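Checklist before submission:
- one chain only
- standard amino acids only
- sequence pasted in full

Submission:
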Amino acid sequence: MKLVFPKCQDLAIHAFFPTAVLIIIAIFTYETIKSRNDARSELHNQALMVGLVIASGVQEKFNAKFDGLDFFIDFVNFPKD
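Returned file contents:
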């Protein structure tokens, strides 16, 4: 039985980069929830949208599976109090 290891570049593209994007989205989501009533919340919402656009592009280009992406898209459109 022969073990086949992926190239480092493929591993970085298919595993590390999408994971890093999701971690960045999670951080922006946390900051958005934390500062929802602050004046900065609009800036955090815009940053979250940029992260979602990047994650969507990664998903389409590399066929990565983002199970929580629909949740984040719905979360961005939450009603303001």
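Reviewer check: The radius of gyration is 16 Å.
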